[in-house]
Amino acid sequence: MQRLVPSASGQSYGTRCKKPVAVTVTSDTPLDMEACAGVVEVLVKHILYQRGQIPVPFDALQREARLQRSISQAHLRDAALPLNARQNSVSRKEEIMKHKLQRKRQQWLCKVDKFLLNFNSMKESLHNELKSGSVRGVKVILGSSVMTGRESYFIRLPEDYSSQSSTQPAKPHNRGLKLFRNLVTNEALLKVMNQPCGVQRIWVMVQKSTGLKNTTDHTKSLGANTTAVNMIHRPEYSEHQRTTKVEINIQHRSVSASMDLTPTVGSGITLHNLGTKRSLYLSSPSVFHSCSSNRNQGMLTCTYLEKESDNGTSDSDRHKMLPPSLIRNSDCTYNKSILKTPVKLYKEDIIPMVETPVHSSFLKVESFTPSKQLASRLGTFNLSDGTLDTTWYQIDCLISGFRDMWNLLKSAPNSNTSINHTINP
């Protein structure tokens, strides 16, 4: 993977874009908690490399740390060899430069080990929070502090990722290719990535729902060299107005299909008891009912009980002229129940046993006015402010970026020959 090279005609870093850069990435397969954790981890690694916080890609950095012991032993063996021309001043200078490079390399490898240790601790803490299902998004901040960040990258997760289950085999490679294809083809994001950025401190914050409290209270061991760190509550967090903001919205195609279901207990079920006849009809404002064919109208055929008026005439003609939804007489009942739900009669109460999926076109009930619909849904309204629905938590782990070891020695004399001799002893 190659780093994006800044263009020569790029603007200076002082002219930052105040408007957030929005990037949308859509996955063909549903993303569960494990898949979202993998996507967030890959994005954080990509941001750190593209913004110059690590000198090489993350995988290459891990390989360098893995080879630290073998390379160090090779340097020790090479330093123990006797020199035939120790009195020669040229050989003496080469030996001094060689030991200097070896010392710089050891310091650089120590930074690599510290960086990987902090990154793994942050990753484990992030995975634990994602397993709770209350995480809305993850933010990576580059800057001296959380409040005064120079750049922020907010990764917004799908809303229903916690309820998804992986029904197809995971293909992280294909998902990663599509992810980076969307990132590198966005022109606004390329302008941000092309701006020069020095080595900064790296902060990771988590946006969680306020309804659930699943934060890690104590540090606990998760492996031989990894520990999960604490979460710091940051309710006062707000971004600086000069911070360059990037929002990456991750979406997926959910496998759940929408269908109309009959109501549950206490939701729009009304019982009419007129003598020995009982009828159950649906009166829920959440379902739109229409009748589009004669076949559907036949299903709703109802018979009206005739009532003799005072003068002896029948009121059946008057009832037949009005639709059932407009008849408010308690004398009217249905011979055929509209709602096909098995019920259990116990002490004159109706208890729905099974919720049967029905098609909305088969039902036709009275229309609801806006005032009735508002009154029926008052119990489900959330009257709290939108900003109070979520809160911020900071992962108590400081990650510092670092430069390449070879950039520190460009001004040293004969550095090329010494470096080659050090790499290939």
Automatic annotation (TrEMBL):
Per the record, its GO cellular-component terms are: nucleus
Q: From which domain of life does this come? A: Eukaryota
What is one GO biological process annotated to this record?
Answer: regulation of exit from mitosis
Q: Which Pfam families match?
A: p31comet
Gene3D superfamilies in the record: 3.30.900.20
Cross-referenced InterPro entries: MAD1/Cdc20-bound-Mad2-bd (IPR009511), MAD2L1BP_domain_sf (IPR053729)
The protein depicted here goes by the name Uncharacterized protein
Record organism: Portunus trituberculatus (Swimming crab)
